[in-house]
Amino acid sequence: MKTRDVKTIVFLAALLFAWTGSAHAQAPDSCDLPAYLLFSDSELKRVAQAVQDNKRLDIAVLGTASSALAGPDGGSSAYPARLQAALSRRLPGVMVNVVSLAKSRRTTADMAGELKKLLAEIKPALVLWQTGTFDAIRGVDPAQFRETLEDGVADLQAGGADVVLINMQYSPRTESMIHIAAYADSMRAVARERDVPLFDRLALMRYWNDVGAFDFYAAGKDRGLAVKVHDCLGRALAALIFDAAKLEKPDGQAGQ
Amino acid sequence: MDTRTVQPVMTTERDLRLDLFRGIALWLIFLDHIPSNIVAWLTIRNYGFSDATEIFIFISGYTAAFVYGRAMRERGFVIAGARVYKRAWQIYIAHVFLFTIYLAQIAYVARGFQNPLYAEEMGILDFLQQPDVTIVEALLLKFKPANMDVLPLYIVLLLLFPPLLWLLLRWPTTALAASAIIYAAAWEFGWNFPAYPSGYWFFNPFAWQLLFVFGAWCALGGAERLGGLLRSRITLSLAVAYLLFGFFVTMTWYFPRLEYLFMPKWLSDQMYPISKTNLDVLRFAHFLALAAVTVYFVPRTWSGLTSPLLRPAILCGQHSLEIFCIGVFLSFAAHFAKVEFAGGTVMQIVVSVVGIALMIAAAWLIAWYKRVEGRKATARPQAARADLAGGET
């Protein structure tokens, strides 16, 4: 009886804490995510193979401006570099190499033209393909967007790479101006169709916004927010890749 | 004034159900246009394939045929056609007015927005650097900002309406068949209007005309012809079964694990993508099912239609062009309030409730003004108003 009471009290206290925490938390290290947001039933077999057999993991990030940060330390603060750091921590003894090919103002069709070159030059076990925002800004036909993306993912798979799709950022200031819903749906459909994980950046950032982890309404020039968010995204991506490739944790905790 | 002698199947009484559901559709469109709005979880798009746009376009087709059909029989093709074009022009002006407000909003956002996290999203402001091109493309209805796609669709539908109405009055079923053929051809050959800077119209007029023409067909006697079908229990069960199916499928969008567990791959291969641009058959059927169930349970003579509780929705539905435009403006304003003050749940509920209250107040004011003015202008004939379709009276 007593232990149950204690448990109830602990539970209620935790609930209260979670509730007040969600209202006030502005902690710098608050990028925890519930597991369902990083859930995927698609496996990254080539990643697993590269890690286990070669002790080397080459990852290429194909994307647009939201995969990069401006400034002198932009390269090391953007999520591709943060992913490399997080994965290296999680996979001691494995040489992790993330190459970022992010360039602004490219539609999915523009990027699809570079896949062959990418495969030949980098020979990645995994390609992270971030897209959707610029297509939405340009108003590319969503059906065409979907087709281009699906063909591109198929080409990458045929070229020997696993693929993870990364969708748009949650951007509350521009969300009434950029119609992203159709493109987000298309990306989800392509992920299902080609059996690749979708890194649902939109949902993750919305979650962080809702629990008060970050203030995405901020308009100012402050780089601190961008740097923190990219670090969190890099770590979340590492967690998703780690789980989807069914890699085993080494001894000790290589937490997020 | 009595048209019963001309066309016995057509009723002259205004069907309040049309106003009621159009009013509700306008509220839902407003709620859906506020981004990240928790109140939008109440709207029907989350529980099935179709959304408020289908209701709105169908009812607009219905009322357009009701009003201009009468005009065409009484005054002839030319006069009725001129009235339709006058209405299209008014809607065009309303669209340009809304575009101006949009420009002001986006220019304001452009000035203060420098968050490096969103360097890419700021690309949406690029068109401000070429105002000449942007404004001309907007006047040509090729450049259409988000959430401003419905009125251009409406303008095109009205421009094509006079010959169509002529056909509908003579051979209604032929007209409906022609509409279905255009719909099928649009799917087959990928017809759509081009947009700027790239892509196509969000609401493909070649596809959406089907719903508008179907509404018009129903108004000109089609509803009576379907009467037996609509009263049958078999139709009702089929409609309910399809609505449940739609509900289940939409649930799999929000709970992906459901899909993983229950949705067979062959089915999702068949179904997806469900195109809103081209008015997917699944959406059209969902609207039909919704309409069938509604007509079954809400008869024309339903006493609730005169209750003060539903009066606000009916008022909004009776002044749909004005209320639609106010709704678009209010959704801009709601987004602005969320960005400038707070974006939390409380704010989302506040802007939603205040927005709908303002829509009702505006509808009440317009109704009052028209009543006062109407009393003075006794010389004018008291024609039934179709509002968005024919509110010039």
Brief summary:
Helices cover 50% and strands 11% of the residues of chain A. With 256 residues, chain A is of the alpha/beta class. Chain B contains 16 helices and no strands.
Kindly describe this structure:
The complex is a heterodimer of chains A (256) and B (393). Chain A has 256 residues and is α/β, with parallel strands linked by helices. Chain A has a single domain, classed as SGNH hydrolase (Rossmann fold). Chain A has helices at 2-24, 45-54, 74-77, 79-90, 108-112, 115-122, 133-138, 142-158, 181-193, 201-210, 224-244, and strands at 56-63, 95-102, 126-130, 162-166, 198-199. In chain A, strands 2-1-3-4-5 form a 5-stranded parallel β-sheet, with helices on both faces. Chain A starts with a helix and ends in a 12-residue tail after the last helix. With 393 residues, chain B is an all-alpha fold. Chain B has one domain. Chain B has helices at 16-33, 52-75, 77-112, 131-139, 150-159, 161-170, 172-189, 205-225, 227-231, 233-254, 256-262, 265-271, 281-297, 311-318, 320-340, 345-376. In chain B, helix 3 (77-112) packs antiparallel against helix 5. Mean pLDDT of chain B is 90; it is low at 1-10 and 378-384. The chains are: A alpha/beta (256), B mainly alpha (393). At the A-B interface, helix 7, helix 8, helix 9 and helix 11 of A face helix 3, helix 11 and helix 15 of B.
Keywords for this entry:
heterodimer; A: 256 residues; alpha/beta; Rossmann fold; 5 strands; 11% strand; B: 393 residues; mainly alpha; disordered N terminus
